[in-house]
Amino acid sequence: MENCIIYIFLFLLGICVGSFLNVLIYRLPLNKSIISPPSSCPNCNTKIKPWHNIPIFSWIFLKGKCAYCKEKISIRYPIIEFLTGILAVLIYLKMKNIDIFYFTTFATFSGLLALAIIDIDYKAVPDNLNLLVLALSIFHSPNILENFKNALLVIGGMSIIRWYLSYFIKKEAMGEGDLIIGGVMGAMLGINLSLIAIFISAILAIIPSIYFLLQKKEPELPFIPFLALGTFIVWYFSNFFNSYWSSLYA
């Protein structure tokens, strides 16, 4: 019963954070303040009432439409809120404790979620949010100096790969935003698991790449969503991946 209450509390906390992520995702790329003005309908510009802005539930009660002009509200908003709520619960299931490191870890992965969506929309991410997520990742555990060192090493390694690839393919092989996410991976996972996470991210990216190839399209495929997902998968199942890594050298 006690665990059930904790799960409900964390899920509700998570969807509230998800609502804030929606604000970041919409406003940061447009260089708008995340504080003011208050949320309003993009179509009719009417200020949204507090009871029309309850995460997930308001979207359901309003049937996915603005309460005033009846313009459709994207289903992406409640999906992001729901995912953030699930994220809050999953991180607790992994860490089995609610302390300062739980909140820095949750903030890091929430930030990665926001960056992933922004990268999908704009094929670029704001440096202020990216650097904030990197800073949070360094403080996700008591081993702050080790996390910082690992972040620098992964950023350095990915930078070298970027230079060589860019030289041979004659175009930018990796964005600066990807390098900063590499630092987040290093801080969260360490060197060994970061290599596994990068490999998994590349495998995940192959699927849409093949689809676009079959469709004879050549879009600029955003890589941060795959890096973020790969990081979370390896972090959540770190015991398994650590055992696998050890078995390679047994």
Detailed description of the structure:
There is one protein chain. The model has no long low-confidence stretch (mean pLDDT 89). The protein is 70% helix and 0% strand. The relative contact order is 0.09. By secondary structure, the chain is an all-alpha fold. It has 9 helices and no strands. It has helices at residues 2-27, 57-61, 76-95, 100-122, 127-138, 144-169, 176-214, 224-236, 238-248. It folds into 2 domains: 1-98, no CATH class; 99-250, no CATH class. Belongs to the peptidase A24 family. Residues 12-94 form the Prepilin peptidase A24 N-terminal domain. InterPro entries: Prepilin_IV_endopep_pep, Prepilin_pept_A24_N, Prepilin_peptidase/N-MTase. The chain crosses the membrane at residues 6-26, 75-94, 100-117, 151-169, 181-211, 223-245.
